[in-house]
Amino acid sequence: MSSLVALPVTANLPYQHTDDVFIEGDWSPATGTGRTLVTNPATQEVWGSVPQASVADLDRAVAAARRAFTGAGHANGWRDLTPTERAGFLLRLADEVEKRAEAISHTNTWENGSPVAESSRAAGNAASIFRYFASLAGLLETPDIRPFPDGSGETVVRQDPIGVCALIAPWNFPINLVVAKLAPALMAGCTVVIKPASPTPLSVRLIIDAARAAGIPAGVINLVTGPGSFGDALVKHPGIDKVAFTGSTPVGRTIAGACGQLLRPVTLELGGKSSALVLPDVDLDALSQVLIRTCMRNTGQTCYISTRILAPAQRYDELVDMVTATIAAAKQGDPMQPDTVFGPAATRAQEQTVREYIRSGVAEGARATTGGDVSSGFDRGFFVKPTVFADVTPGMRIAREEIFGPVLSILRYSSLDEGIELANNTAFGLGGTIFSGDPERAFRIAGRLDTGSVGLGFFASNHAAPFAGRHDSGLGAEFGPEGLKAYLAPQSVHRRIR
Ligand code: NDP
Predict the structure, then answer these.
(1) pLDDT at residue 5 in the model
(2) Could you tell me if the CB of 168 is within 6 A of ligand 1?
(3) Is the pLDDT of residue 11 over 90?
(4) pTM above 0.90, yes or no
(5) Do the strands 306-312 and 407-413 form a parallel or antiparallel pair, or are they unpaired?
(6) Test site for ligand 1: of 112, 129, 172, 255, most ligand atoms within 8 A of the Cβ
(7) Cβ of 138: how many Cβ atoms within 10 Å?
(8) What is the mean pLDDT of the chain?
(9) Most exposed residue of 7, 48, 177, 480, measured as fewest CB within 10 angstroms of its CB?
(10) Nearest C-alpha neighbor of 430 from the set 246, 304, 254
(11) Cα–Cα distance measured from residue 496 to residue 483, given in angstroms and rounded to the nearest whole number
């Protein structure tokens, strides 16, 4: 048994136990009664806690966001600043986030067990997202004038910020999945109330500190903490104009139902079960270099990763051997060590879910070539041994359902059409990759995949391009001008041309 020794980094974690929520530019004690404990999933130590805010706290946060939005009649609201002025704030915020990179990374890793090699990218990535949306100021300032088809007049299409937005995030990337919403919302002129996931309520506080240091006016960003039922109250709050959510498909459906009833705009980034379509001309060495980042990033807890590998029959055994050897050789252990590739599952519940999927794979006849339903080899922590299943068939649960852990399924196909059909044979439509020695052919095949994003030979999301799930993977888009538009409401002003 390996044993993980907790490194004495808690001294570097600015937020641990706190009573506060952030409303109207200040930290203040929440008035709710319960608390949420924060556990290091590598050691099972409880090292932090946050309050569960009350409905009164929620009302205060939403009211503060409304005042900041409109200016409450006595000053310019956030919506009234020019896009260039708001971009200035975003650029300062990006700089302030970067100054806090180490604390963000360590807090993130202590909350959810993301290997520090992963969490150390969070601040830089967040800063880059803020800078990208700041760069869209010009787009908002460019007049959009459209003549009437009969030439009798013209329409000026204005873009108004939607208003007060609820931002609800999951635990797997607690910084970036907030910032992917916060940056376009702020750029558009919206104000926000953020609810982080219960396992990861602390790292996002460093974004709040950065926003304060950047001089973002009081009330523009508010942060409240509470369980899923509190998220539900936030979604349905009468003062909310739009909801942006990343999380599981079942919760996304519930939120979509509530927003449907309220006719409230909603963006949903949900789960995935994406495929790596490997063509017979693949370069296996090149694939092995990107395998973990593409198919098992963040210990398999990434929504868009290609967790189903579709292997051509003629290269099947070679591919299974390469994938097995690559995964088996990757280091699992203390996520604070820079060379750790696989950390623990983020929570006890997630560990149990992943183990249950591994058992179902074995029971349904898949062949574990590494890992499987075995001891993690650690005497504590929510570790699950990274597992590769070969001989997976399309009807198995491990082929169809999102596992959200370090489990890969390899399916065999015989013709390209069959491979494409397998890739599309899922309820989801989020990511996907194609591995081929012929980039032009891979590009053409991408158009036959029914999914929002496809990577050719690798996968990375690009802040300048839409990230949009299809089917059970969500509604709407984040990133790119499309992501900004999700926080804007058009107004057409018609006028006669003299
Ligand atoms: P959940 O859907 O359980 O929770 C996400 C967030 O919603 C949390 O803040 C949660 O709060 C909150 N919440 C729970 N119930 C409700 C409700 N009824 N109304 C409003 N808010 C609610 O997802 P997880 O946190 O477990 O995250 C993992 C899931 O997220 C995976 O399925 C993954 O695929 C998906 N995901 C999708 C991504 C994408 O971009 N498409 C990216 C990353 C993850 P609390 O934590 O307090 O319960």
Answers:
(1) 45
(2) yes
(3) no
(4) yes
(5) parallel
(6) 172
(7) 10
(8) 96
(9) 7
(10) 304
(11) 32
